[in-house]
Design goal:
Helices cover 33% and strands 14% of the residues. By secondary structure, it is of the alpha+beta class. The radius of gyration is 22 Å and the shape is globular.
């Protein structure tokens, strides 16, 4: 499952004051019954849902509907190359959880369940939905595990992208390690309408990390690089049949290029290509020497080597590209379209060497879906704006 965000929010996202649109509910309920004939006839369920919406402004999914909706939202995720495994998603039904402490505790539990000793399991934890007049909790972090960025002597120590989020966490009272480092896990920030934003540090056992070494470059391990094993996206709405679940963190496992060609290499992240190129002794006098390409390939080799040696699930971009086309073929055989964003499905290195490069894809979005609100995207990097103006009493 890709760690990258979805397109901006769509019209299917409802605010906490909106009544659920019965047409959206009906669309989903009919889909659920069509793909799950053992659920019985659809009309009695539709009558119940209509009556519930008329009485309360919303309706409650059954556990089976929630699980199916979450899995299909993954199936429909246009920017994810790992959708072949959509049926394997384990869904934790936590809709009764609304307070920040329990949301954070279950997020920590999610990380340990998903890590699974290295055999990464796809997991989603679905917290309370938005209801008319009763907004649900929000998780500010864009992933449950992100590393802090600190301004130091005109430069940055750690992850440049999260300088703003780190400052916000510090302003809220977060205490970083006595000696800050390149890979300090940021705390979770959970906001509820009653409590406002609250800090929840991750514990050491929550963050399963892999030290990075190289199969041939002995000095690579001395760089002190590492990366966490569970890419759990945590600021996207899960929208099922008109019902919006703002806090529904989910994970698959990493594609190696997400770490080795983006997180460690992007100039607004760790920007390590020049350091590695220098240590490799490459000619960096001109871009025509392709020194940057060579350095990035070796960083990616180190990531794949290290995760494999540690027994931690990871996929390479060539294998996963083949598997994605298997998924597309299965969807077509089932009579379904498979939306895909070419610019995200094609890997960030060696794109033309993979089969996903050489074709076009359906682009029409499908529901259920994951949606990234503009404010949530900004909070995930910068720690602003707040979701609710001022905390209010129950």
């Amino acid at each position: 499952m890709a760690q990258h965000p979805a397109p901006p929010a769509s019209d299917s996202v409802l605010s906490s004051t909106d009544e659920v649109d019965f047409e959206l509910a009906e669309e989903f309920i009919r889909l659920f019954h069509a793909e799950n004939p053992e659920a019985g006839p659809v009309l009695p369920r539709l009558r119940w849902v209509r009556a519930e919406i008329q009485a309360t402004g919303s309706y409650r999914h059954t556990t089976a509907e929630l699980t199916f909706g979450a899995q299909v939202a993954w199936r429909n995720s246009a920017r994810c190359i790992g959708r072949l495994y959509w049926r394997s998603l384990r869904v934790r039904d936590l809709r009764a959880v609304r307070d920040a402490d329990r949301v954070a505790a279950h997020c920590r539990r999610h990380l340990r369940l998903a890590a699974n000793g290295g055999r990464i399991r796809p997991v989603m934890s679905v917290f309370a939905p938005d209801e008319p007049g009763r907004p649900a909790p929000r998780i500010w972090n864009d992933q449950l595990i992100r590393y802090a960025g600190y301004e130091r002597d005109g430069g940055v120590l750690g992850d440049r992208r999260y300088l703003g989020f780190t400052r916000t966490a510090l302003d809220l009272g977060w205490q970083p390690p006595e000696q800050p480092g390149m890979f300090d896990a940021l705390p979770l920030i959970v906001e509820t309408e009653q409590e406002g934003p609250t800090l929840h540090p991750l514990w050491r056992e929550d963050v399963f990390e892999v030290p990075l070494s190289h199969p041939e470059l002995d000095w690579f391990g001395s760089l002190g690089l590492r990366w966490h094993a569970v890419p759990a996206i945590s600021n996207m709405r899960l929208v099922i049949g008109g019902v919006s679940y703002p806090a529904a963190p989910f994970n698959g496992w990493y594609l190696g290029t997400e770490i080795g060609a983006r997180n460690l290499v992007d100039r607004d992240r760790y920007d390590l290509s020049e350091l590695v190129g220098e240590r490799m002794g490459l000619d960096r006098s001109s871009e025509q020497t392709l020194w940057r390409d060579r350095a990035v390939i070796e960083i990616n080799r180190a990531v794949l080597h290290s995760f494999t040696e540690a027994g931690v699930s990871i996929a390479d971009h060539h294998t996963e590209s083949e598997r994605f086309l298997t998924h597309v073929a299965r969807e077509e055989k089932a009579g379904r379209s498979c939306p895909a964003d070419w610019s995200w499905i094609v890997p960030p290195i060696s794109g033309a060497l993979t089969p996903v490069f050489h074709r076009y894809y359906d682009t029409e979005p499908l529901r259920p879906e994951f949606v990234l609100d503009d404010d949530a995207a900004h909070r995930g990097q910068h720690g602003t704006p707040r979701c609710f103006e001022q905390p209010r009493e129950n």
